[in-house]
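In the design runs reported in the main text, the only information available to the sequence generator was the tokenized backbone. The following block is the verbatim input for one such run; it is reproduced so that readers can re-run the procedure and compare outputs position by position.
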């Protein structure tokens, strides 16, 4: 083994050992849930309407009841609806010619897959939403329907634009949330087989406008903690891996402005990544209901990653931003704390 390879192997072994040691904290300490400050539950890649989505939704309700917790918001981080809402009927396995009914604000799935799945009795709070690739691709103009649903009176579904900002925590906010549309043209618009831009995505004009808006918002005064939320990961060890166009556009801004965390989904798993020399923590919560996928790109050591269904509890205190992944049985899988100065504490 040459010197470079030995150094690399020793570094990997050291990092892995350190992460394992940090995770050997007493489970009693890890299980504590703070009631003060702000509390959120986050899921991505959930909108199937099927058994796994129902199981995760129930786990979220059970978690809230067990901990006597009324979340300040649900964070719905894309792929909110999978599949054609009203597909063409089939006879002997073949589709019958004719158009299927469009996906509208009156479609039944709003009640079955959103309102009843995450009931107001358990979650009397806003649902802050971003768009995923399936929200663009599976139903014609599906992204516009989701924006339209948010304009109705007395709905918890909040998406005033494809990108928007929310400051929470009272007169002196604890947290700035910046919600982005990650469906850039090079991310969602390109057919990977042909290389042509034939799929629904943001327009070039929207992409430019969002980027300029992001620069302005990050330069403005913000709360002590900032989380940016998008559907596609910047970095991921999961099935899809890193998203290069987003790395190019957003990573330098997150680093420059000391964004504490980037929260996303797209890969159907739960992850936590810390990048050498980078301020921002990367949290993937893609276990909300779609079929999980193995982490096929483990190029880097990370504190946690597993292909399981589950949700993420986020607690914001005056001096701490706490992320906790929970499995579909409610069990704590991984937890870490992010301090204002960027320090990360596992457990």
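Verbatim output:
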């Amino acid at each position: 083994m040459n010197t470079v390879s030995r150094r690399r192997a020793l570094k990997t072994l050291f990092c892995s050992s350190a992460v394992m040691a940090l995770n050997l904290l007493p489970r009693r300490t890890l299980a504590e849930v703070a009631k003060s400050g702000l509390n959120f539950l986050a899921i991505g890649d959930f909108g199937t309407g099927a058994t796994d989505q129902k199981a995760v939704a129930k786990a979220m309700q059970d978690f809230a009841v067990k901990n006597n917790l009324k979340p300040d918001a649900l964070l719905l981080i894309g792929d909110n609806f999978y599949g054609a809402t009203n597909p063409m009927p089939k006879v002997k396995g073949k589709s019958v010619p004719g158009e299927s009914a469009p996906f509208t604000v009156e479609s039944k799935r709003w009640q079955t897959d959103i309102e009843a799945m995450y009931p107001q009795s358990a979650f009397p709070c806003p649902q802050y939403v971003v768009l995923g690739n399936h929200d663009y691709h599976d139903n014609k103009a599906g992204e516009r329907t989701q924006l339209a649903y948010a304009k109705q009176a007395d709905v918890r579904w909040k998406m005033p634009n494809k990108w928007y900002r929310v400051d929470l925590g009272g007169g002196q906010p604890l947290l700035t949330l910046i919600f982005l549309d990650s469906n850039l043209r090079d991310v969602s618009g390109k057919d990977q087989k042909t290389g042509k831009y034939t799929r629904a995505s943001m327009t070039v004009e929207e992409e430019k406008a969002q980027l300029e808006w992001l620069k302005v918002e990050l330069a403005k005064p913000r709360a002590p903690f900032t989380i940016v939320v998008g559907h596609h990961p910047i970095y991921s060890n999961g099935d899809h891996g890193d998203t290069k166009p987003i790395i190019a556009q957003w990573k330098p801004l997150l680093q420059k402005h000391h964004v504490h965390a980037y929260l996303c989904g797209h890969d159907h798993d739960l992850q936590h990544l810390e990048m050498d020399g980078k301020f921002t923590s990367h949290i993937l919560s893609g276990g909300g209901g779609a079929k999980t996928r193995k982490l096929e790109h483990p190029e880097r050591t990370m504190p946690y990653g597993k292909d399981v269904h589950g949700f993420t509890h986020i607690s914001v205190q005056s001096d701490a931003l706490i992320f906790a992944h929970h499995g579909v049985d409610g069990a704590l899988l991984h937890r870490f704390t992010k301090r204002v100065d960027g320090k990360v504490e596992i457990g």
